[in-house]
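Structure first, sequence second, as always.
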């Protein structure tokens, strides 16, 4: 045994011989970055970070760990918001990073599919699709680091869910290393395949608790011919919803993204992110960022946008708006939204609530959750933002100016309970797209208890009877 950990030294030697020097890190200086999560909520330690380069190497590493009864934490870009890829503090778990499985294996322009390995970043996957003249329509602010395996294991949502669905809606096939080291070769590219249980959907969203995704076949779409992006200052969250409805009535299929931002959220971006600028004359209390896109010819999206916005202004819903004139302006508008998480990180300690409600209830969620949190902690900065078009709002709570960060974080359960009470009253979910990870398993019995949790435990026991895949995550 390694004296500092519960991992047998001969397992580490066997992994070293199988994976070679590039395939395993054991020096604490090298393993440290894999042992802290993006939000810095957890700092663990591990005797080894495995970096296999092929599916066969993943399978062999998993088999060796299974024989020794050692737990594995699969890790992609390590951008989880809920400590999903966090390793335990006792040194008993091994991290398995997929980052060297980073090949785009094939793009088929007729089937409109991409076969891709788990360690390719989402951005690189989008770029590869674009180079082939197609669109991979999944887009999240962490796409430069988040990897395909992580995105699928968390069923990521993001900005384009309103149009294309979540990650799960883009998956046709998967290749998965099971907890005993067997490989399930499910890389089909069929749109119709009713042959028993749909196993791929079991692994999507399973947060590394059932197996390790090593590759996937993803659906691609035609690239838009025309795109129009607008930033609108709106009178209220209700006005934001009304504008969404008007755009839907006009041309629902063209809505590519519909994002809400509070005045405070935008203010934090302007304050903390160098180069961020507000292209409107006056600041507002509420904004929406809207992207329309179409692959139709001569659609005149800009003209359509101007028409809907003019009517919305007349109705008092929109106070001011700007439509991007160029790609650079489009990127600058999107930056105001995409830098929300980073700006909040720089503004102090924060408690995050990634919740969803029926789209029609979003304004009520924003109002009631804000009031509840302000009652609990005077001076708290409530920053609701996110995907209004699919009912997923991040009700993020930033510490009051001057308050001790640790003292604020000590209130996290009280604050999450307050937000979740509103979410429950509105028939919503306490986790919309970030998953459960290590942060939220304690909420599962209350929200998913009874038959639902029993079924999930049964599935876990059937696939991973030794409980070695990402223990301590998702299931309480
Ligand atoms: C700035 C920022 C913005 C974000 N915006 C969004 C957003 O808009 N929408 C959204 O949904 N999420 C968002 N997230 C959360 C996060 O980026 C996603 O959850 C992402 O899908 C995680 O990918 P990853 O590769 O970093 O996975 P990791 O963080 O490494 O892992 C996440 C989970 O997946 C498991 N896992 C990783 N790889 C594999 C694999 N190959 N096989 C099996 N299990 C695996 C891990 O064990 C863990 O449970 C954001 C995060 C940040 C930091």
């Amino acid at each position: 045994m390694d004296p500092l950990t519960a991992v047998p030294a001969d397992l580490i030697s066997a992994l070293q011989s199988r994976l070679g020097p590039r395939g395993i890190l054991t020096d604490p200086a090298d393993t440290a970055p894999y042992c802290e999560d993006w939000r810095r909520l957890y700092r663990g330690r591990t005797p080894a970070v495995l970096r296999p380069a092929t599916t066969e190497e993943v399978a062999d590493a998993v088999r060796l760990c299974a024989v020794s009864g050692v737990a594995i934490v699969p890790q992609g870009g390590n951008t989880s918001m809920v400590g999903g890829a966090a390793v335990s503090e006792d040194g008993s778990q091994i991290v398995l990073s997929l980052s060297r499985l980073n090949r785009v294996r094939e793009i088929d322009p007729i089937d409109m599919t991409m076969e891709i390995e788990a360690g390719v970043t989402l951005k690189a996957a989008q770029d590869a699709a674009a180079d082939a003249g197609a669109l991979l329509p999944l887009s999240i602010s962490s796409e430069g680091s988040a990897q395909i395996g992580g995105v699928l294991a968390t069923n990521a949502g993001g900005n384009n869910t309103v149009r294309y669905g979540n990650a799960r809606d883009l998956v046709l096939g998967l290749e998965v290393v099971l907890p005993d080291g067997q490989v399930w070769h499910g890389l089909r590219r069929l749109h119709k395949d009713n042959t028993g249980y749909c196993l791929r959907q079991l692994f999507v969203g399973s947060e590394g608790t059932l197996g390790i995704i090593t590759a996937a076949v993803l659906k691609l779409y035609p690239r838009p011919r025309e795109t129009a992006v607008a930033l609108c200052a709106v009178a209220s969250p209700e006005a934001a919803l009304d504008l969404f409805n008007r755009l839907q009535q006009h041309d629902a299929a063209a809505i590519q993204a519909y994002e809400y931002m509070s005045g405070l959220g935008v203010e934090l971006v302007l304050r903390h992110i160098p180069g961020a600028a507000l292209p409107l004359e006056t600041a507002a209390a509420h904004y929406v960022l809207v992207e329309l896109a179409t692959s139709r010819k001569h659609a005149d999206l800009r003209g359509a946008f101007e028409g809907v916005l003019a009517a919305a202004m007349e109705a008092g819903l929109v106070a001011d708006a700007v439509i991007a004139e160029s790609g650079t302006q489009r990127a600058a508008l999107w930056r105001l939204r995409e830098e929300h998480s980073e700006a909040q990180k720089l503004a102090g300690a924060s408690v995050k609530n990634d919740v969803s409600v029926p789209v029609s209830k979003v304004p009520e969620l924003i109002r009631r959750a804000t009031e509840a949190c302000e009652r609990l902690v005077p001076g708290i900065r409530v920053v609701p933002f996110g995907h209004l078009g699919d009912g997923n709002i991040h009700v993020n709570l930033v510490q009051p100016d001057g308050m001790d960060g640790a003292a604020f974080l000590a209130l996290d359960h009280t604050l999450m309970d307050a937000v979740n009470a509103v979410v429950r009253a509105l028939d919503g979910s306490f986790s919309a797209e970030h998953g459960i990870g290590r942060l939220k398993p304690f909420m599962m019995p209350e929200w998913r208890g009874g038959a639902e949790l029993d079924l999930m435990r049964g599935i876990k026991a059937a696939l991973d009877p030794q409980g070695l895949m990402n223990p301590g995550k998702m299931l309480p």
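Margin note: The chain is about 35% helix and 20% strand.
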